[in-house]
Specification:
By secondary structure, the chain is an alpha+beta fold. The protein contains three helices and four strands. It is globular and about 40 Å long. The mean pLDDT is 92.
Length: 91
């Protein structure tokens, strides 16, 4: 069964943001299902939908690790289960 998560990355654009986030996901067996990214006036914004059904860590651990990675590379990274993301963004 697929366990979808929504991962968002926002911050000042720098070299390697996508590479570092994707490397972390690959190392933890998290599959990227969809990805969208834009850069507006030097600000980077990326949204990913990922499948964590084969992940080696829990959503909570991944969220904490991505938060730390974001601090290291100067961006804000959030990871939420799909159902929580949908509940928070319901119109």
């Amino acid at each position: 069964m697929m366990k979808k998560t929504i991962i968002t990355v926002v911050g000042k654009d720098t070299v390697g943001i996508i590479a570092k986030v994707c490397t972390y996901l690959a190392e933890n067996k998290i599959n990227i299902l969809d990805i969208s990214q834009t850069i507006v006036d030097d600000y980077f914004n990326m949204m990913m939908i990922a499948d964590m059904s084969k992940a080696v860590k829990s959503v909570s651990e991944v969220s904490d690790n991505l938060d730390k990675l974001g601090e290291e590379i100067g961006v804000i990274i959030r990871c939420q289960r799909e159902e929580i993301f949908n509940s928070m963004h319901r119109v």
